[in-house]
């Protein structure tokens, strides 16, 4: 199937990611069927999609007529047969092999044989998700970043049986709806970006648990230091600039002895420690309370601030 054959898409799972993907597809002109087993989740998703589009309208991205046209492209359903005439399916069910395998088995019965099946999995293997499917050749791992209707990255991974043309068409479709796909040369748990996030977070736990700093201090150090640069450049280019005329090689040769000392002192934990989630939650609630009012003191306010800032950044990167 080539991208010109994709006329209608489906999102399975109407939670955080499914409703955001549905927003992305309808705002880029695709009719979208949003399927979930839960009526209340579909109702919530309907409101999320409208809120997402209204927010983009407030930011001047769309006018009111465009918002209404986008909303009119969305069909909500608990009947999987509605996937009978779609050419692209984005699965956003729970992050669990058995559930994802079960969803795919149902899809195999109702969707057209050549419809592409893309899983939003945060880090499971598409080969494993599709291992019982007769049609594993049409399956691809397609990991978005939250919220997918704003964040451009989609990480694409082929499974053992995925056809090259499926990956190519998925890649084209994501570009057509404003995404920045990165194709993995081989599938790996956690894709690229979540492995990087997990590595960073392992050290967050280490330094807070060693009493070096608070949860709030970690966020401040990230946000006002490397985080500001990461919104502009990736870690390799950032360090390349730090190396002056000699560039990245010079910097790496220079810091090698020091970084070796750090590596030896850093965490190599294989799991989140017991009690960490309570400690982290308490830390983040304290942080939220201490924020300047104009940047938000509740999850909803902070999310709005994040999205407003994202829109500005996306405009700078010419992604909106
Ligand atoms: N939340 C994130 O930040 C994030 C980011 C990237 C990727 N992901 C991945 O996206 C997927 C969805 O995550 P989420 O955060 O949107 O989860 P969520 O819990 O918000 O939503 C999951 C939805 O799936 C529905 N569901 C459950 N069983 C189902 C079934 N058998 N058939 C159809 N729908 C079913 C639920 O009713 C719910 O609406 C996961 O694989 C997750 O790892 C999440």
UniProtKB/TrEMBL annotation:
Pfam families: 3HCDH, 3HCDH_N. One of its GO terms (molecular function) is L-gulonate 3-dehydrogenase activity. InterPro entries: 3-OHacyl-CoA_DH_CS (IPR006180), 3-OHacyl-CoA_DH_NAD-bd (IPR006176), 3HC_DH_C (IPR006108), 6-PGluconate_DH-like_C_sf (IPR008927), 6PGD_dom2 (IPR013328), NAD(P)-bd_dom_sf (IPR036291). It comes from the Bacteria. Keywords: Oxidoreductase. One of its GO terms (biological process) is butyrate metabolic process. Coiled coil: none annotated. Residues 190-256 form the 3-hydroxyacyl-CoA dehydrogenase C-terminal domain. The keyword Oxidoreductase applies. The keyword Oxidoreductase applies. Pathway: Lipid metabolism; butanoate metabolism. Belongs to the 3-hydroxyacyl-CoA dehydrogenase family. This is 3-hydroxyacyl-CoA dehydrogenase. It comes from Papillibacter cinnamivorans DSM 12816.
């Amino acid at each position: 199937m080539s991208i010109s054959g994709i006329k209608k898409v489906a999102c399975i799972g109407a939670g955080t990611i499914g409703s955001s993907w549905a927003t992305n597809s309808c705002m880029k002109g695709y009719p979208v069927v949003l399927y979930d087993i839960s009526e209340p989740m579909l109702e919530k998703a309907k409101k999320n999609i409208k809120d997402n589009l209204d927010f983009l309208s407030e930011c001047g991205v769309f006018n009111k007529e465009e918002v209404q046209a986008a909303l009119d492209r969305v069909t909500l359903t608990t009947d999987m047969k509605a996937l009978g005439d779609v050419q692209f399916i984005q699965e956003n069910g729970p992050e669990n092999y058995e559930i994802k395998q079960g969803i795919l088995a149902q899809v195999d019965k109702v969707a057209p044989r050549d419809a592409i099946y893309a899983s939003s999995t945060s880090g499971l293997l598409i080969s494993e998700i599709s291992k019982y499917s007769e049609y594993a050749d049409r399956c691809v791992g397609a990991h978005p970043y939250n919220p997918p209707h704003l964040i451009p990255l989609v990480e694409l991974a082929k499974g053992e049986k995925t056809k090259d043309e499926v990956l190519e068409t998925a890649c084209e479709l994501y570009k057509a709806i404003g995404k920045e796909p990165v194709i993995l040369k081989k599938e790996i748990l956690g894709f690229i970006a979540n492995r990087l996030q997990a590595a960073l977070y392992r050290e967050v736990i280490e330094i807070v648990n060693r009493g070096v700093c608070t949860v709030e201090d970690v966020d401040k150090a990230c946000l006002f230091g490397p985080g500001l640069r990461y919104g502009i450049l990736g870690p390799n280019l950032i360090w390349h600039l730090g190396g002056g005329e000699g560039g990245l090689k010079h910097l790496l040769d220079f810091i090698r002895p020091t970084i070796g000392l750090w590596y030896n002192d850093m965490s190599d934990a294989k799991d989140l420690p017991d009690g960490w989630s309570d400690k982290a939650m308490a830390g983040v609630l304290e942080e939220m309370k201490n924020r300047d009012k104009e940047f938000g003191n509740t999850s909803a306010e902070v999310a709005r601030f994040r999205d407003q800032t994202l829109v500005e950044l996306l405009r700078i990167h010419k992604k909106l």
